[in-house]
Amino acid sequence: MAKEDDKPSTGGWKEFFWNPRTHEVMGRTASSWGLILLFYVVFYTFLAGMFALTMYVMLLTLDDYNPTWQDRLAVPGMMIRPKGNALEISYTIEETESWDSYVQKLDTFLGPYNNSVQALNNDVCPPDRYNIQEDSGEVRNNPKRSCQFNRTMLGDCAGLPDESGDRYGYGTGQPCIFIKLNRVIGMLPGKGQSPYVTCGAKKEDSDKLGELAYYPNNGTFNLMYYPYYGKRAQVNYSQPLVAVKFLNVTFNEDVNVECKINSDTITDLNERDKFAGRVSFRLRINKKQ
């Protein structure tokens, strides 16, 4: 039997990290490690170059003013202001603090529509016709002009200070709700006839809604605000609004309201999309007995 001292020594794990006899580090020589490092440097440099080239080619296809691809929605979305929690507007007439937040939100929302701001930034346009502004070949006609939408066009819902002190009608139980369509670049609604908004109660609340008043007249989105050319091309664009004033809603009752857009070119309302061309919300006005 061979003695234990006669067995060759392997060096164990220490020799794996550094073998002084073969000058290997973790089983590889310096030249082997150098070749591996060179391979991965070249490989990842190639991948980074391919990614950069792909991004460069893709960016060449994009336009700064018009999206190359966009959802071709047949019906634009619709939303209300003020927008309470879960599209619910509820308050008590006698408790000012319950509706003061709605008034403050509307003041902020309508600030850019003040007549002085509109006169400074936008133009007076001929109504009832599209405000088409074509480019001259490769020459951009930018920035494009935008038409004025003055706050005073909202009539009793303009929220301007008056002697009564009741702004937007919340203090008298006749609140104003503002409706706007989502912006869609290039959309030409109406086929020459301005689209308009109508509101009504859901079937179960049909006897609770009462009379409505629309501002501007007939609740129209005038054609002069279309088409929309995008935020970069039409910097000062003022989105048209329709204000709906609820004149005699039944107090202390939930009223489910639906407003929708009416137009020759907006007819296919999707039942599965509750915001496509319409918006539903709950209105409750409490009055202490």
Note down, in words, how this protein is organized.
It is elongated, with a radius of gyration of 33 Å. The mean pLDDT is 86. The chain is built from 4 helices and 8 strands. The chain is of the alpha+beta class. The longest helix has 31 residues, at 30-60.
* Structural Rg: 33 Å
State the separation between the terminal residues, measured CA to CA: 112 Å
Q: Show unreliable segments.
A: none
Structural class: alpha+beta
Main β-sheet: number of strands, strand sense, barrel status?
Answer: 4 strands, antiparallel
Mean pLDDT: 86
Beta strand count? 8
Strand order of the largest sheet: 1-3-6-5
Our count of helices gives 4
Taken from the alpha-carbon principal axes, the silhouette is: elongated
Proportion of residues in extended strands: 15-25%
Give me the strand/helix succession: HHEEHHEEEEEE
The proportion of residues forming helix, as a percent range, comes to 10-25%
